[in-house]
Amino acid sequence: MGNGKRLLIVGGVAGGASCAARARRLSEDAEIIIFDRGSYVSFASCGLPYYVGKVIKREETLLMATPEMFEKRFRIQVRLNTEVTGVDRANSRLEVRNLTTGEVSHEQYDRLLLSPGAYPVRPPVPGVELPGVFTLRTIPDSRSIREWIAQPGVERAVIVGGGFIGLEMAENLVKLGLTVTVVEMQPHVMPLLDPEIAAAIHEELTRHGVTLRLNEALTGFEQDSDGKLAVKLSSGASEAADLAILAVGVRPENRLAKEAGLEIGDFGGIRVDERMQTSDERIWAVGDAVEVRDFVTGRWTLVPLAGPANRQGRVAADVMMGRGSRFRGVQGTAVVKIFNLTVGSTGPSEKTLKRLGLWGDSPGFQKIYLHPEQHSSYYPGAFPITLKLIFSTEDGRIMGVQAVGKDGVDKRIDVIAMAIQKGMTVFDLEEAELCYSPQFGSAKDPVNMAGMIAANQLRGDSRIFHWDEMGEGSGFLVDVRDPSEFKAGHVEGAVNIPLGDLRDRMGDLPGDKEIWTYCFVGQRSYFAVRALVQRGFKARSLSGGYKTLLLGKEVRKERG
Ligand SMILES: Cc1cc2nc3c(=O)[nH]c(=O)nc-3n(C[C@H](O)[C@H](O)[C@H](O)COP(=O)(O)OP(=O)(O)OC[C@H]3O[C@@H](n4cnc5c(N)ncnc54)[C@H](O)[C@@H]3O)c2cc1C
Question: Model confidence over 258-290: pLDDT tens digits?
Fold first, then answer.
């Protein structure tokens, strides 16, 4: 965009504000105006659950910038409480309504950025508009929830939806002393994760007193004369509540784009190319409102997260100012804290790959599980991270990873996220040189371990089976743990031959059957497989061991 041109921006939070600031850094001459129908610019939506929970004490802390700051520091005008109501592409102008005065005006643009975000879904069920039923998207939403909770007698909350926002709210409301129930339509919370990984979260929620109602859909709300809510569920059950939070997902805010005739994708997001340009070459769109390519699967997708919104805003500004920047696509790298757990993932889950029909036999994918500690086990505070890595069996390319633990989850997810972005393989993870001292990692970091276990599969050094393959058709099951561990719980029908005795007792094993070994996390059973195959047996070990099997058992229980 040449000097003196007018850049108008719809939406002044993550995507819009970063585009505006970047545009100014690239052009001192452009006139830049941000319109936002809300009362704030550039606020921290991600902090809202913690403001409700009083972890963040003051509302001002959520404001990353003010209109005055934009004006003074960047000469960017911010018009708040101002809704853009129409885009007239033929005449390159916006229809704008001042929500305070009702006045309608028109604004000419040379370049337009749409960053209108997404809106929280309110299921069309009876009673959804009753007082006490909230969604959380804006500062006023969080203020209303805080004020509601401050009333006397507000003790029970029902959260509908067990995704990121629902679970962050669950934790914060529990910490405020409320009794919390989470209702989730799927068999597990965090529906983007695989069920056996989510199973670890169920335990943590339950341990902190959260009641989980899985496989239950919301059917409506009723309110009695005292203002108490009854949250109606698909099973016919009803949950009493003084407060309900709807956290069932968001939809792209696409109205302006749709009415302006811009191309909209199958998921309702504004279609953009890698320059963040819409089907109109003078209009860009970024953030929760857009549909972009998944970097790993190559499919169109919606990833409503702050990181992509910010980066896309920057790319859009670059392109508007004549630079050749491109957005690489999204891979859904995310992390969330749930009480004492950190849960993170990047790239598609097994469930997603199967849903997309990509988990075929050829070239195909493999998964491995491991439970290494986040740092040296001898250093106080060591705690396992449950990690699931998915990779291509063709060339070892890493597809995705999911992890749950106390500490150190974010670091492993981020390292593997970068590896995915650079198209790396499990062989690269084996070789990755990562920082280490006892407080932070191990000489063989969990990332290295994941690479080694996966690479062992591809090299044929070890074969594995999985928790969901147990049952009919299993091999001859050998539990290679110590007798005390075996006694504390084992797979029905398994024979206990501790690893230390295995070499002397190979004669006890059937020569005509494949031997399936397992231990607690998969390491001793791998050693057993190596010993067995070198003595002519066909053998595999249970990936992630008995610990993963227990998570799988939870999945089976939840599925009924
Ligand atoms: C409670 C909560 C917690 C979150 N936590 C995380 C997290 O931990 N990590 C993470 O990565 N992401 C998180 N997110 C998601 C993240 O906040 C969004 O992905 C990000 O804000 C999207 O940026 P955006 O610019 O697309 O939209 P938004 O930030 O939603 O901004 C859109 C703005 O556009 C304005 N607008 C819309 N239409 C118009 C119009 N017609 N005229 C004028 N103004 C308009 C809206 O008022 C809004 O202010 C969270 C979101 C919420 C709600």
Answer: 999 999 999 999 999 999 999 999 999 999 999
Question: Which residue's alpha carbon is at the smallest distance from atom 20 of ligand 1?
Answer: 306
Whether 68 and 54 have beta carbons less than 8 Å apart is answered as: no
**What distance, in Å, lies between the first and last C-alpha atoms of the chain?**
59
Token output for 288? 């929760």
- Read off φ and ψ for residue 330, nearest 5 degrees: -110, 155
Which residue in 19, 46, 435, 519 is the catalytic one?
46
Instruction: Please count the CA atoms within 13 angstroms of the CA of 399 that sit on its side-chain side.
Output: 27
Q: How far is the CA of 243 from the centre of ligand 1 (A)?
A: 23
The model's confidence at residue 227, banded by pLDDT at 50, 70 and 90, is confident
For residues 449 and 359, is the Cβ–Cβ distance under 8 A?
A: no
269 DSSP assignment:
P
Cβ atoms of 95 and 88 within 8 Å: the answer is yes
Is residue 475 within 8 Å of residue 517, measured between CB atoms?
no
| Residues 22-78: tens digit of each pLDDT | 999 999 999 999 999 999 999 999 999 999 999 999 999 999 999 999 999 999 999
- For 242-380, strand residue ranges (E) read 243-246, 250-252, 270-271, 283-285, 290-293, 300-301, 334-338, 341-346, 365-370
Contacts with 520 (C-beta within 8 Å, 6 or more apart), sequence order = 481, 485, 545, 546, 547
Do you know the residue count of the chain?
560
Q: Which ligand 1 atom is the nearest neighbour of the CA of 169?
A: 1
Query: How far apart, in whole angstroms, are the C-alpha atoms of residue 330 and residue 293?
Result: 7
Separation of alpha carbons 197 and 375, rounded Å: 21
Assess contact for 378 and 418: CB atoms under 8 A. no
Rg (CA), the chain: 27
